[in-house]
Design brief:
Blueprint lengths: L3 E9 L6 H9 L6 E3 L9 E4 L3 H9 L9 H14 L11 E6 L23 H12 L6 E3 L5 H14 L5 E8 L3 H9 L20 E2 L1 E8 L11 E10 L12 H14 L8 E3 L6 H13 L7 E2 L2 H4 L6 H15 L1 E2 L21 E2 L4 E8 L3 E9 L2
Parallel strand pairs: 3-7, 4-5, 4-6, 10-11, 10-14
Antiparallel strand pairs: 1-8, 1-9, 2-3, 6-8, 9-15, 12-13, 14-15
Length: 385
Amino acid sequence: MKDVFIISDAIVSPLGFTSEENYLNLQKGISGIRKRKPPTPFTDSLYLSTMEEELLEEKFRSISKNKNYTKIEKLLILSIIETLKGTSVDIKSNNFLMILSTTKGNIDLLEETKKNNFPENRVYLWSIALIIQNYFGTAHTPLIISNACISGVNALICAGRLIRDGLYQHILVAGADIVSPFVVSGFQSFKAISERPCKPFDKNRNGINLGEGCGAILLSADKTVSQKNENIKMLGGAISNDANHISGPSRTGDGLYLAISNALKVSNITSDDIHYLNAHGTATLYNDEMESKAFHLAGLSNTPMNGIKGFYGHTLGAAGLIETIIAMKCMLSNEILPTLGFEEPGTPEKVNVSNHFLKTDIHYLLKTASGFGGGNAALIMEKNV
């Protein structure tokens, strides 16, 4: 079994066009969430974290004059290019694969004002894979993983398994989603959108803020393919489904607990070894409640924890990538960022939520995600020093 190393990464979001720029803004306490006019046909302003369109277009024009790319395709291309900078990976070899994670892809192309701008099949997820393959000229068509809000962590776990089993030498995982009328209306129908900046794990939380962006991580069995190797090893991960409800999470936390337990098992460590937990933390009543129960069952109630959706909103298929990258930056810096919006504990089981900068030695990191349909994922990283 081969080791899996984190080689490089990139975040394209309202907080910047590199991981470093994003992390610096988080250290400054800057959030991308603003009160904005949502996509048509909605009229009432919502708290959203969305890209500045002109800035995104300017950045993309610097690498391509081709206008035949959608917003999500531009986010993916920019993040992939940034991730590959300074590496010696041959992306056209049979040893290289891309995995793309998204929940809705080009769903905005269903809008009346956009649906005639691109071929009808551009709305399908497989179409995005072909667009990315054609742009970069890879030997393999990228795999698409769309498993609700665990898509990003799910994709990382799958990539780790493929490298560990020797099927590929290098895999680049990129996850992206955008704020669209379809997504806004979907969460509004569940009455899950907050009318104020979200408050993960707080007593007064009442829903999510939606966000958009892209995260990308290059994994490899060969840590010498880049001089900027961040000395982080992916130990292992696990995925579960609690089969509770089409949208609602388990009321007991058993599903996420199972994923955490199996991730610890395959990583050959125990919950006592985890120094830092980066949670899903949507700020909905039932998600945060469920997570607290799962962490209690896993023996992680006292483990320092944060959630960063108060900075980015919920970026759906991008969340697992963006949040894992930020969590890795925390691990390398030996600091835990505040959970923006958290003030007063409000979960049935105790969780050790960080609401201020916390300096602490971090050797093992646990990242979790949960999503519609009962999906849960848990991923463990080790600082390889």
